[in-house]
Amino acid sequence: MGFRSYLLRRAILTIPVFIGLTLFIFLLARVLPGDPARMALGPRATDEAVAALRIEMGLDDPLHIQYLNYMGGLLQGDMGIALTTNRNVFTDVLAFFPATLELVITAMFLAVLFGIPLGIIAALNKDRLGDNLSRLIAFFGVSMPVFWAAILIQLAIAYNLGLLPPSGRIGVDRPEWYTGFLIIDSIIALNFEALRSTLAHLALPAFALALAPMADVARMTRSSFIEEYNEDYVRALETQGLPGRLIAYKYVLKASFASTLTIIGLDFGFLIGGAFLVEIVFSWPGLARYGVRAILENDINAVMGVVLVIGAVFIIVNLIVDVLYGFLDPRVRYGEGSSA
Amino acid sequence: MAPILEVEDLKVHFDTYEGKQQVLNGIDLTVNEGETVAIVGESGCGKSVTARTIIGTLAQPPGEIVSGEVRYRGEDLLSDRAAAQRVKNEEMAMIFQDPMTHLSPVFTIGTMMADIINYRGKRSISWMRMIRDAIGRGNRLSAADRERCVEMFTKLQIPDPEGILDRYPVELSGGMRQRVLIAMALITDPDFLIADEPTTALDVTVQSQILDILAERIAEQNLSVIYVTHNLGVARKLADRIYVMYAGEIAEVATTEQLFDQPMHPYSIGLLESIPKLTEFDSEGIGGLIPNYTDPPSGCRFHPRCPAYMEGTCDVEQVPAFELGDGRYVACYLYEEGMDVETAASIADTEVEYEDEELEQFAAGQTGGTPPWEEDEP
Ligand SMILES: Nc1ncnc2c1ncn2[C@@H]1O[C@H](COP(=O)(O)OP(=O)(O)O)[C@@H](O)[C@H]1O
Ligand code: SF4
Ligand SMILES: [Mg+2]
After folding, report:
1. Nearest to A169 by CA among A188, A197, A146, A190
2. How far does A252 lie from chain B, in Å, by closest CA?
3. Are B231 and B365 in contact (CB under 8 A)?
4. Cα–Cα distance, B108 to A3 (Å, whole number)
5. pLDDT (tens digit per residue) in B25-76
6. Which residues contact B234 (CB under 8 A, 6 or more apart)?
7. Domain span holding position B296
């Protein structure tokens, strides 16, 4: 099977997963205790007013009609009004989510950027100094709770040394809103002052968030690199006379990267969870603060919106990982599975 | 003829859960310039281990080269790592036994051919070049090289020789992959070829075609060859000389003619006499009797199966190789150093008698049933 039909098949497969996600969120919201109409109106509203609002909100309709209405709204970008902001949740998500995504993607980028070389160094120096050092780093990375790492880093580098700002997203006027990603927006606006400030603000939270996945990526790269290196075809390549560097960094690395990708995909979901904690430590104006407030105030529409976005990101990341996987390893495309 | 490869007293052990497996027990082997030497023996007798040790791809651990020398054009490859590297990268080539695991799964045949043609024998490669290759500029096969590949594929009877360059190994059958591996070995124009059962994965008709092609290439490129096989018929077709191997030891060394004319070692005799029985076994045969290498039989390792076994002689000390009058070597106490061929032949005739079912075991050993330690590998 060619790559294109694999891509298409894999993309179509995500549709039922999306529907499942919305169904799950919808049902969850309906079985949670508390009457959304009562919550919206507050404890002092009359029962009549609540009943009227219930009808207006469609809460007395049969469940499947309610679900269809909910889906219909979603397709038009309508997630209902958030009590806390009094805006459509969709608008809120658009406003807050780019900050979170920028943080998470930067963290992932750092994790891969450092994790893979660390893993390769460890693999090529198996059981020697380089390996032990990188395993030690990895060990700290995975064993430190993310909020703890965040607080330590903030204390040491921002407060004690004063090298980088301790909180917020940007220290100057923010550039005009194109994407909501400040890095991209300041580049579009050619505003390098803003770019510098953005990167400075991003550095510490992204680094704190990157520690654990970096360790994961390094460990996975190490073990799959070593495993791949012991495969028969590597012996064949040696007798075919290819330079060692070509064998290691072309053949072995590409084959072993497939398993690293899996870890990256899994960690991405984990990162969004971690981002909630890091955002609070660094006062990062992202979806986490919005979500936490929504949960505390029982703002059901906002909670549904946040959960939906996180679920959707998870699905999309998984799709990307699978597609890359198929791109890297033809065995996946042919359904033979991978030895990794 | 000058020797190009001399293996002397090679001992290789394996560390496994069951203990130390003493597999190769002092192998002596010589290949002369331009000569094709066959190593013949049942599955599990250590042919692949010998081949891998010579070319330097023995996995260590679990393997351990306990003693011995492997001299290629006079240089000992076991002690001189630089020489070993050079010889492996530039002068020798190997066709591996299992085509399913010996091709990189994540690159196309064309990419691999291009790398082999462009980078074989290069000590190093710059990062710049690798990056350029990776983003797809450079390191394409030149038109001439492409032509060479296609020509080689055509000779090896690969259908669609042009299209196969864009295929991944997963898209190819075992037989096709095996031919690709053969092409990869031959395209480099090696001086020395090690072929480890290169036709086992192919069906019988294709097998003999490929053998013809190999024979032709060997003659044409004046290759020195070690050809490993469990099949005496194949050895007869290709080899100038044959090393009969049993349980990690060389039982007999003779020219192909001498061996088929009159095998001397009881094991050789068993192998030859079992040939008519071969047709009774399909290719999924039950495999031969694999000796236990953790606690191998004392003295002559063949003695538990030998019809001419002499108690008190054969099971005491390792048998030295006796040179007979016609220049062949036999590691068997039935013979003596310098014994003339007639005497030796009459001993072979009178002393070595096999039962029918014993011959069937030999036949089974030659059908190449998968030995158990290879079966459970993924
Ligand atoms: N990777 C390995 N690990 C442990 N033992 C091995 C390994 N490879 C080979 N051996 C041992 O060496 C013996 C001979 O193997 P091999 O050379 O592959 O036989 P063949 O003559 O069929 O090619 C086997 O019986 C096994 O005991
Ligand atoms: S006669 Fe003795 S030495 Fe010769 S093969 Fe038989 S057991 Fe071995
Ligand atoms: Mg073998």
Report:
1. A197
2. 9
3. no
4. 14
5. 999 999 999 999 999 988 888 999 999 999 999 988 889 999 999 999 989 9
6. B38, B199, B207, B211, B227
7. 264-363
Identify any residues that bridge with A83 across adjacent strands, giving them in sequence order.
Answer: none
Task: Provide the 3-class DSSP secondary structure of residue B196.
Answer: strand
Q: Count of H helices and E strands in chain B?
A: 13, 12
- Flag whether B85 is in a domain: no
Place of tokens 């790592």: B81
| A328 chain-B contacts, CB cut-off 8 A | 106
A328 vs B326: CA distance, rounded Å: 59
Q: Which chain A residues are within 8 Å of B133, Cβ to Cβ? A: 250
CA distance B304 to B309: 8
For residue B371, the ligand closest to its alpha carbon is 1
Mutate to test the pocket of ligand 1, among B12, B45, B57, B373 (most ligand atoms within 8 A of CB): B373
**Shared domain check, B272 and B182:** no
> How many CB atoms within 10 Å of residue B230?
26
- Could you give the CA distance from residue A99 to residue A166 in angstroms, rounded to a whole number? 16
* Contact between residue B211 and residue B199 where contact means Cβ atoms under 8 Å apart: yes
- Beta strands B241-246 and B36-40, pairing class: parallel
Integer Rg of chain A from CA: 24
Alpha-carbon distance values, B127 to A116, B124, B132 (Å)? 17, 10, 9
Reduced to 3 states, what is the DSSP secondary structure of residue B207?
helix
Where does a domain end: B146, B169, B189? B189
Instruction: Please give the torsion angle defined by the CA atoms of residues A39, A40, A43 and A46, in that order, rounded to the nearest 10 degrees.
Output: -120
Give Cβ neighbours of residue A255 (< 8 Å, ≥ 6 apart). A228, A231, A329, A340, B104, B105, B106
Report how far apart, in Å, the C-alpha atoms of A139 and of each of A82, A214, A215, B119 are: 42, 10, 7, 39
Instruction: Show the tokens assigned to B145.
Output: 């090289």
Is B132 within a domain?
Answer: yes
Q: How far apart are CA B9 and CA B26, in angstroms?
A: 4
The alpha carbon of residue B92 is apart from the nearest alpha carbon of chain A, in Å, by 7
**Three-state SS at A306:** helix
DSSP letter at B124 equals -
pLDDT in tens, A20-60: 999 988 888 877 767 777 777 777 778 888 888 778 777 77
Residue B290 lies in a domain: yes
Q: How confident is the model at residue B369 (pLDDT cuts 50, 70, 90)?
A: very low
- Relative to the alpha carbon of B320, which ligand is closest? 2
The DSSP H or E segment spanning B343 is helix B341-351
Task: Flag whether B156 is in a domain.
Answer: yes
Evaluate: CB of B213 within 6 angstroms of ligand 1.
no
pLDDT in tens, A185-219: 888 888 888 888 888 888 888 888 988 899 889 98
- Out of B146, B172, B189, a domain closes at B189
Q: The tokens of A50 are what? A: 């609540």
C-alpha–C-alpha distance, residues B374 and B101, integer Å: 12
Query: How many domains are there within chain B?
Result: 2
Report the complex ipTM. 0.86
Q: What is the DSSP string of B297-309?
A: PSSSTTGGG-TT-
Average pLDDT for B184-189: 89
Domain A92-339 = CATH 1.10.3720.10: yes
Tokens 């906002």 belong to residue: A302
Give the amino acid at A251. Y
Q: Which residues contact B11 (CB under 8 A, 6 or more apart)?
A: B22, B24, B25, B26, B27, B65, B66, B67, B68
Domain boundaries, chain A: 3-75, 92-339
d(CA B210, CA B208): 5
Angle at A279 between CA A276 and CA A281, to 5 degrees: 110
Closest among A211, A225, A220, A204 to A284, alpha carbons compared: A204
Separation of CA B66 and ligand 2 centre (Å): 25
